Amino acid sequence: MNKFIDHQIIARKVHFDFSQTPRHWVPNDVLATHVLNSMHVLLPAVEHWFCRLANKTLPYVNDKNLKADIRGFIAQEAAHANAHKGAEIYFQTHGIDPTPFKHFLEWMFKDGFMGDTPFGIYGPFKRYSKQWLAFRMGIIAGLEHYFCFFGTWVLDAEGLEHADPAMLDIVRWHGAEEVEHRTVGYDAYRALAGDHLKGYLGRQLSMSFAFIAMVGFWLGASVYLCKLDNTPEAKRISRKNPLALIWAFQQTAKQKKSLPDLVMILTALKGWSKFNYHPEHDGDVKKALAYIANSPAAQQVAEAYAQALAAKMNR
Ligand SMILES: [Fe+2]
Ligand SMILES: [Fe+2]
């Protein structure tokens, strides 16, 4: 732990049961359902990439508290990726198969554009491996800035109150842990790039890339899932042009409150652009930890563990 996180970050055991989840699990809201479903498609590859890069950052970190936080971060992100993989049963039940896109993402983050030696190009990426790592850790810090923003939003999202309980729990549990470890990616980036002008400019460059990639992949994955969903409303959404889709997103955010407001998403960049920005002031950690303690998925595992222990004692 360090001065920004007053407890050790750990991966928690959770179990989500999506076997009863309806196709459109945000009731009467196909767009919000698939915009949120895109997490299950995008995040396993993205968060495994976070784990690999955070692990490569460890040798550059001298502070033993930050090292412990990074190890906790890796454990949590791996648990998130695995939890989202569990949504495969939901996709299978409803005849939606995003496997080709998931394979593409795995390739892109391992061997493609975001890999250590993109497309097998060794020379510059080996010679400047620390700078390449710092640029990509800056992207991770930028994405973590947004994951904390989305986590803060989802814990209070009124428009999701009547959503399927298992899906609502995974998005809130994940969001809460993003709020909990909000400083780690940023501090790992600082360990590589420093706090001075170079580090500041580097994180602005990384965020420019992270923001465009996040918006592009998020909307792209949402449209892709709508294309795979054979219901008329999903097909109608999948035929929208990008501007009409952004408009529909914003209308849903304003009227149904089942998606975050685009103006708020844009203004979240303001804090990041400040020279002395640090994510320690983002999100409400107490609220996040309270959700984690009461999450149905965590309680289910705790109850199963208590029952197994009681059965063992009675033997
Ligand atoms: Fe995560
Ligand atoms: Fe995270």
Automatic annotation (TrEMBL):
Q: Does the keyword Zinc apply?
A: no
Pfam families cross-referenced by the UniProt entry:
Metal_hydrol
Would the keyword Cytoplasm turn up in this protein's UniProt record? Answer: no
Transmembrane spans:
133-155, 205-226
InterPro entries, A to Z? UCP07580 (IPR016516)
Q: Which residues form a coiled coil?
A: none
**What keywords tag this UniProt record?**
Membrane, Transmembrane, Transmembrane helix
Q: What is this protein called?
A: Metal-dependent hydrolase
